[in-house]
């Protein structure tokens, strides 16, 4: 009898041998007791592998849990699959018209459910009980490669029309589909090997749908807090309706529009919608006679600078005289900047700002005094005064942009009635299909990669590397204050990923395969493959997208 070939696996610098064809799950089990959370994937020399896959070569492995981005995404995806299966089991496939996973909302996913059923607590209890029953059975989640034509036929038969439509734009001849106890679906990304891995979840009614509550990357064994921003939710919901009105609520519909020559009308229609919204905000500010400070805050790559310019134009059209102030000019001098736990300068926290001087200057302006405004010299790390004097007269308003603009501690001396607060973020509602959502952070990251490359000479690798620290700063300094805004402005544009594809794709291919950032770059490249590209020719010079791709009429 032929001796079975052995494979050498290196984990944490130590070599181990396993028979050829051993599933990665078996290898992971040998190291699980040394790792506090469930191993969900393995990283084989920079390539993520699902646990059902067999060992077929000598390799170095790293275990991936839900404390890493690929791990928590795998858990979320698998939990959605389990929820869909349970919902169809409880209600009956024929009575479900549509189950649509819309967007993330405070450690949960908002889901719209339509069909011949009553969405109430009793139904959710039964669905959740079925999810736990399926989880306890440790049912396998299997992966199968089928032809693209067969996939189109399959999803047409299952009445998942958007999935079938999506694959018509697929270049690859084959598609990977997942099965769970006879239920078949397509997902963009990896899955756990069986339902026993999906233990932490919950269902709750929310507004006109339900939410699937999930754990967080920080604490994968417990549900994250569910404290949703109602203002952000309704802006997302209204944006979804606008996308539906433009017949572009998912990638399949967007690709269909592009392929039929409808890209330019779509661009112009969405830009017109955005301009109307900015005009409405300006009109509301003008109607509030006591407003002298327009405070704008939002996370990275939301388009704050271009938005400020466009809002200023609309304020002028309303008879006001706007003056732009960047709060970055009120940084404390570099030697007074606080440091984080790693000893690096913390430019994101409120301690990096000269709050006292900002408030003094703003109160003096409010009282009609003439104030010399500072300019921060980033090369010297010091504030300078270069004769920039300002006096507020009748009809003058300050348009102030900065990450702390919604935090009352930053503007503690200014009367509430003198402030109009705007939260701006790229809240994309475009999804790949009903069961595969696009995180809003992906849209912002793509924007940031292109802008960093164009204006700062940064590689995509560098931008991806620093993105987690940017996100941590947003979680601490921006998101907690979003509900204090007078208005939420959604800067996401339906067409932007199709536009950015041609710009960002080459940059992502430049991320070295042996780097830690390669896994994320590869994920983004796969994501971009779903989109047909569109050129920038018909994107207006005033568009928010010009802040990222260049060619705009504003100095940003």
> Which class of the largest domain in CATH terms?
Alpha Beta
Lateral arrangement of strands in the main beta sheet: 2-1-5-3-4
Q: Major β-sheet, in short?
A: 5 strands, mixed
Shape: globular
Number of helices: 15
CATH architecture of the largest domain: 3-Layer(aba) Sandwich
Q: Could you list the spans in which at least 5 consecutive residues all have pLDDT below 50?
A: none
Total E-strand runs: 19
Strand content: 15-25%
* Topology-level CATH name of the largest domain: Rossmann fold
For CATH, the homologous superfamily of the largest domain is named as P-loop containing nucleotide triphosphate hydrolases
Overview in brief:
This protein has 556 residues and is α/β, with parallel strands linked by helices.
Report on this model:
The chain is α/β, with parallel strands linked by helices and 556 residues long. The chain has 3 domains: 6-65, Beta-grasp domain (Ubiquitin-like (UB roll), Roll), CATH 3.10.20; 71-228, 2-Layer Sandwich (Threonyl-tRNA Synthetase, Chain A, domain 2); 232-549, Rossmann fold, CATH 3.40.50.300. Helices cover 36% and strands 21% of the residues. The chain has helices at residues 24-29, 69-91, 121-136, 148-157, 161-167, 230-245, 251-259, 263-287, 304-317, 355-366, 440-456, 460-477, 496-509, 518-528, 546-549; strands at residues 6-11, 14-19, 39-44, 47-50, 59-65, 96-104, 108-115, 141-147, 174-180, 183-185, 202-206, 209-213, 293-297, 321-326, 370-377, 382-391, 396-401, 419-425, 487-490. The strands form 5 sheets. A 5-stranded mixed beta sheet has the order 2-1-5-3-4. A 5-stranded parallel beta sheet has the order 14-17-13-18-19. It is globular and about 85 Å long. The relative contact order is 0.11. The model has no long low-confidence stretch (mean pLDDT 94).
